[in-house]
Amino acid sequence: MKKLSQLSLGSLDASIAIPKYDRSAVRPGIVHFGLGNFHRVHQAVYVDRCLHRPGNEGWGICGVELLDNPGTQAKAEAYRGQDCLYSVTEYAPDGSASTRVIGAMVEYLHAPVDPEAVLARLTNPGTRIVSLTITEGGYNLDETTGVFKLDTPDVAHDLSGGPLRTAFGYIVEALRRRRGEGIAPFTVMSCDNLRHNGDTARKAIVSFARGKDAALADWIDANVDFPNSMVDRIAPQVPPAARDRLNQRSGIDDAVPALGETFIQWVLEDDFRAGRPPFGEVGVELRNDVPAFEFMKGRMLNASHILLAMPGIMLGHRIVHEALGDTRLYRLLETFLDRDAIPRIEGPKGVSLEAYKKAVLERFSNPAINDQLLRIAFDTTAKIPVFHSRTIEMLVEDGGDIRREAFFLACFGAYLKGKDDKGESFEVVEPRLTENDWTLLRGGNPIDLLRTSPFEKLGLADHAAFAKAYGGYVASIQATSVGQTLEALLAETA
Ligand code: CS2
């Protein structure tokens, strides 16, 4: 196997696509926070395509790692050891695969080790976009009020002038310096999977700035663009066994290989006063109806994912395509999409929701992706309000069939106990549930789940029909199992 580096690129197997542009001429024009798998198989792939077109040498990526722990230290070492290159293997639903080496990242900075280097890069006039994949919870907004929390430890630390820890701290300090030096601001581009991601980033950054200096906050609000976008590509985790498999397949010794499906989509508002790479020429859809895409994706793809994960894990499945191979779960998803979701969504112009549904089910069935249900289950508390609440609200309002959603929430309650139908334990990671929520959950009255902070606003505990259906499923799960309860639901709604 060939150790991946700029020098070894020419000797890789001819089937591997490699950067054909002169990387030594590429300078960073994008600084990215959050170098997880999603960024590596999504935005970086599009930027790599742009760099293959002449005249775009100013649009390389500088990756910034904010955390300091053994994992991030190893990653920093890995990227340094392989000239910031990594491989991406893309698997089609029919099992065929191809590997490419992504050369878009030309600089990697480990912020805790050298914060000034990060600020220097951010204030360099050549930096014209700062992009983010810091996760949905990363924007630090209060679940109920939507207000930016100034008192979380890292934010409070950054506001008080300590050595910077957060993306907000770095971005606002860099914008302050640029303003002072008369350098035009960069665009802040969120690539996180949340609704109105640009508006969310604006809220977080302007609020953080307001915590420091009101005039600076106003200047940012007036002068910085925050385009919204809908991003989509399934990017599973790459545990060591998967890493070895990927490397065996490609013949490349890559310390940080990534994998993804062949499907990729990015619908982006063209809001870039500071300029942008030629995204429109490489498959990015530059449109002004991003919300329609966000709603479709969130309420169909992400909603189905989590609807599969809750009962799926309880039935003993751990992998997405295996869960979907269970006909009971397939039927649950299909019925949910056909009867609950699709009739209540106005899709983007020219997009067939029926075709979108077929594509989602096909994508989830892709065996090569081997995506983990526990990855999807992570932070379900944050995902249900975003991906299911609107459908629940509409079902309740228009007198629709609430049974699948009630069953789903009953499964969530069962899942929180961390043990499946077969008695196998699994890890529940729900950073958003407060102490108070856990006290309610431990109190032993199942309806209290609907009173925990994420669900409180929906008022479902006081909606007689919903509470009754939910209570019925909880009782049935306790008396029998998730499996039998699901079978009964499917029989009664056939
Ligand atoms: C998943 C997403 O974690 C989740 O909730 O549904 O990560 C999903 O894989 C991506 O949004 C696909 O683009």
From TrEMBL:
Ion transport recorded as keyword: no
Keywords: NAD, Oxidoreductase
Chain ranges of the Mannitol dehydrogenase N-terminal domain: 29-278
Domain Mannitol dehydrogenase C-terminal as annotated: residue spans: 289-436
Coiled-coil features, chain-numbered ranges: none
Keyword DNA-binding carried by entry: no
UniProt cross-references to PANTHER family, sorted A to Z: MANNITOL DEHYDROGENASE 2-RELATED (PTHR43362:SF1), MANNITOL DEHYDROGENASE DSF1-RELATED (PTHR43362)
Protein name: Mannitol dehydrogenase
Native species: Labrys miyagiensis
Gene: mtlD_2
